[in-house]
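Q: How would the structure tokens look for this protein?
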Amino acid sequence: MRLLIGIPLLALIVLFTLSNTQLVQLGLWPLDYRLELPLSVAILTGMAMAFLAGGLIVWLGALGQRRRARDAAHTIRLLEAQIAQLRGGQRPPLDC
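A: Here is the predicted structure in token form.
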């Protein structure tokens, strides 16, 4: 299934890269530094940076949910130990 999506996408990226070979100059205003690259490399680099920034934002946003899930799993282990103790007359482990 991944190949059905990956191969056509890769073919489109290769065709885009081969079609946009003209050079562009990139610069940052306060600095006098200029970088000359093919247009396709400049666009694909910008897209890759946006993809990584979006992934980082999503990952940071999910940190709280993962912590709550860990806390809930810990609470479940404690409650299961209490249930086992009440059913069997055993003492629950203290290190849960």
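The mean pLDDT is 90.

The first helix runs from residue 2 to 19.

Upvote if useful.
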